[in-house]
Amino acid sequence: MKQETNPFPKTKLQWLWENMKGCRGIYFVGMAGTVVYNILQLTVPYFSGKIVDLFLTGENARENLSTHRDLFYQLILAMVLFTLLRCVIVYGVCMIYEHVSQTVLYRVRNYLYDKIQRQDMTFYSTYRTGDLMTRLTGDLDAIRHMVAWIIRMVIESFSLFAAAAIFFLYTNWKMALCLLVIAPFVFWIIYLFRNKVAPMHALLREKLSQMNTCAQENISGNRVVKAFAREDYEIEKFDKANRDFCETNKATAMVWLKFFPYVETIANLMPLVMLGVGGVFLIKGQLTMGEYVAFSGLIWAIANPMRQMGNIMNEFQRFSAASRKVMELYYSEPKIKDHEDAKEHPDRFDGKIEFKNVSFQYEDGDLPVLHNISFTVNPGETVAIMGETGCGKTSLINLIPRFYEPTEGKVLIDGTPVENLRLHDLRRHIGLATQDVLLYSDTIEGNIAYGDGSIKINDVVKFARYSSASDFIAKMPEGYDTIVGERGVGLSGGQKQRISLARALAIRPSILILDDTTSAVDMETEKQIQHSLKELDFPCTKVIIAQRISTTRDADRIVVLRDGYIEESGTHEELLAKKGYYYELVKLQTGLDEL
Ligand code: DUT
Ligand code: MG
């Protein structure tokens, strides 16, 4: 089979080892303990063999029983003590594996969560939520399983096999060779099995991710499902994903079932060889009865690791498929991140925004969505951005907090290109109310204070008043302590927009960006908001995307976009005088034929 090239800087096991930092020493103790307790397994058959030879079947058995009775008791006691010791070691070893595996799981999960948090917008539009959740849960569990179980089983099987093989060879090498000659066949079968089962686990992991994605999308989109009465369709869709996963699981199990009879036959051949060859050796006097008993008592230590190997390989392939997905995330780097020489800017911005010949195209898009955009907004000014749906307004404002980078040209704040500023400094001074409002499952106060945890309740109320939200909040059963559900279920679209506006204002931003934030608000409320925005008690440059003339008419400048180009720009009066797109829009919205 063609070996896959490893796209990561480390192999899977090296990566795992790296993440075991701090517990490697104790893990070694666990592995050593595993070897020791498996070697101790040999003591019982060994002492049994001795007892048989000395006190049951040997030449002087009867005599030994009367003269060396002490030795007889000592051998029995040794068997009991070694068994007890073995139990204690197994207990300790289990604790170690559990501790280390949970530590690794905790560490990697936190690291991944951190990684996901710091990713850019392109990442979020590439990965599906259900798939990311699968990586953080199922895939990570496969990695925990590797540390807690698979490695332990590998050591257990190999140490048991090796210890038994050495014991056999030491006791009677001819008999041992007759038994061990079969072993290489099992290794060969397991190798064939590995090649067959590896792609099955990769597929299985994909099916699990698809099923989780289906459930996640359905749960978070439940309102759409209900609105279109598509419950049956969604149930059917999930059923298919579930069935696919189930069938793939069965097919994976079937792979082992194909190989299982061969391994099992070989494992079962062992006692037969023991019986036949051992019998001949016994008759010829080349094997004592005690040795025969010890061999018989230990034959499982050769056969069981062979049986176990299929299971181990199966689990190892599951780990392999899962760790690939986890490592992909682990080593992923956002394209948009702080440049090494990025400037620190802990203070507020003056708020000058410049677009210089900016063009932009989405990575997965076929055509540019913005072409050669240039305009300047001076500190404290308000610029309104207008244009028909899909013309690139949201794309344009997304370039200011550097959610995306322009393909050409530059966006500058206070004369510094945004890519030269630290992302944290840049974004914490920008208040953004996005087009799709997402509120957290938290109180209204918690939602408004999201960007600044230290804000006082008086200020929360003040910003709620600025955004004309205080009236409806006061009417809520628990006022500012009212919990708004996931995505703010229980609030109207306009109410959510106003809380989102208060949240953007609450950080006292140097630059405020509103993306259609008052679209679901009535004209009267909108007017109040307009008024409040002019009265803010901190300096602020405002970029407002809006469709209504009532929102844009007072702006210092209006930029009209069309298919990603600036169609026209100027004040309300200037644009009216131009009698272009804006003029037509005003006529349409006011219902007048002539202005
Ligand atoms: N687009 C993408 N990928 C995205 C987002 C948008 O390819 O992740 C495309 C869709 C559209 C163009 O970019 O053709 C501009 O989209 P934008 O969201 O900027 O349009 P808008 O002016 O904000 O439209 P609306 O008024 O509907 O919000
Ligand atoms: Mg938009």
Automatic annotation (TrEMBL):
**What is the membrane topology here?**
Multi-pass membrane protein
Annotated InterPro entries: AAA+_ATPase, ABC1_TM_dom, ABC1_TM_sf, ABC_transporter-like_ATP-bd, ABC_transporter-like_CS, P-loop_NTPase, Type_1_exporter
What is one Pfam family matched by this protein?
ABC_membrane
Main location per UniProt?
membrane
Matching entries from CDD domains are given as: ABC_6TM_YknU_like (cd18542)
Keyword Chaperone in annotation: no
Q: Which UniProt keywords apply?
A: ATP-binding, Cell membrane, Membrane, Nucleotide-binding, Transmembrane, Transmembrane helix, Transport
Residue ranges annotated for the ABC transporter domain, each copy included:
353-588
User: Which SUPFAM superfamilies does UniProt cross-reference here?
Assistant: ABC transporter transmembrane region (SSF90123), P-loop containing nucleoside triphosphate hydrolases (SSF52540)
Q: Where are the transmembrane segments?
A: 26-47, 71-97, 149-170, 176-193, 259-283
A GO cellular component annotation in the UniProt record: plasma membrane
Which compartments is it annotated to reside in? Answer: Cell membrane
Matches recorded under SMART domains: AAA
Where would I find the ABC transmembrane type-1 domain in this sequence? 28-318
Protein name listed in UniProt: ABC transporter ATP-binding protein/permease
